[in-house]
């Protein structure tokens, strides 16, 4: 990742919470601690943030604390071709008339391009997904209520009696911060709370993750592998990760990124 991109992520992160630690910035940027410390020092000299022990803070700390994790605008630039191929496979699982839930995220957002000519009932907590489908499709759209988190472009509610409980879905499609033997991982407790409610409303959980997510970890577990019906990823998945999913009884679909990006051929399944 280039220095300019790292600086953009760091400055965005310090606007989201009072203090951001060096380890948190290492995870966000996939950089070394030494690199992050140099970046913080440079931005401190430029008077763009304030260097503090073990991390950094904004010159004008936010009054509203956002969610942990990379902003949507940063994530959407990463592994774009893989996400598009994965999203195409996800939509191929759907039939017209299906009620589905699409959780907000940059991989699930790519589904909108393949939903243009479909007619389904779509429940989502993503403004981006809802807006695109309203403008470019004839799907029926339902948007959840709650607090708007601008950086992630999602709406989350901590309340049990919100509209989520009134929607049934055949499938829920979602991404994740990371994925390992213990299951799906997320970075923020509020995300966990809101997403668990959505998962409860769906018969099947379909997880869309590019292969880099199998290497990422978080301290918060959303759900175990046994709850997942299908995982869609790209051909970068390692054999040990595929074996882990097979042992857990999870159906694995591998999207062919090269074919999808260049020839339009249908991705292969495994």
UniProtKB/TrEMBL annotation:
Keywords noted in UniProt: DNA-binding, Transcription, Transcription regulation
SMART domains: DeoRC, HTH_DEOR
Domain of life per record: Bacteria
Family annotation (Gene3D superfamilies): 3.40.50.1360, Winged helix-like DNA-binding domain superfamily/Winged helix DNA-binding domain (1.10.10.10)
Domain HTH deoR-type, first and last residues per copy: 3-58
Entry-linked InterPro entries: Carb_Metab_HTH_regulators (IPR050313), DeoR-like_C (IPR014036), DeoR_HTH (IPR001034), NagB/RpiA_transferase-like (IPR037171), Tscrpt_reg_HTH_DeoR_CS (IPR018356), WH-like_DNA-bd_sf (IPR036388), WH_DNA-bd_sf (IPR036390)
PANTHER family named among the record's database cross-references: HTH-TYPE TRANSCRIPTIONAL REGULATOR SRLR-RELATED (PTHR30363), HTH-TYPE TRANSCRIPTIONAL REGULATOR ULAR (PTHR30363:SF55)
Name of the protein in its database record: DeoR family transcriptional regulator
């Amino acid at each position: 990742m280039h220095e300019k991109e790292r600086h953009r992520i760091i400055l965005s992160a310090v606007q989201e919470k009072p203090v951001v630690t060096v380890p948190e910035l290492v995870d966000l940027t996939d950089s070394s601690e030494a690199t992050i410390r140099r970046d913080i020092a440079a931005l401190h000299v430029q008077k763009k943030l304030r260097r503090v022990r073990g991390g950094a803070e904004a010159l004008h700390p936010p009054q509203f604390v956002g969610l942990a994790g990379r902003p949507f605008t940063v994530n959407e630039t990463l592994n774009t071709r893989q996400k598009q191929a994965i999203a195409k496979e996800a939509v191929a699982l759907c039939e017209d008339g299906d009620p589905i839930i699409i959780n907000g995220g940059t991989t699930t957002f790519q589904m909108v391009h393949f939903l243009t000519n479909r007619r389904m009932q779509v429940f989502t907590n993503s403004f981006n997904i809802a807006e695109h489908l309203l403008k470019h499709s004839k799907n029926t759209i339902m948007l959840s209520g709650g607090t708007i988190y601008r950086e992630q472009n999602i709406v989350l509610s901590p309340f049990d009696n919100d509209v989520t409980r009134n929607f049934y879905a055949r499938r829920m499609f979602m991404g994740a911060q990371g994925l390992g033997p213990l299951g799906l991982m997320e970075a923020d407790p509020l995300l966990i709370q809101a997403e668990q409610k959505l998962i409860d409303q769906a018969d099947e959980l379909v997880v869309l993750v590019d292969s880099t997510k199998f290497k990422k970890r978080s301290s918060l577990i959303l759900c175990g592998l046994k709850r997942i019906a299908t995982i869609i990823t790209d051909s970068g998945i390692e054999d040990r990760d595929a074996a882990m999913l097979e042992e857990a009884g999870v159906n694995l679909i591998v999207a062919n990124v090269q074919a999808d990006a260049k020839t339009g051929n249908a991705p292969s399944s495994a």
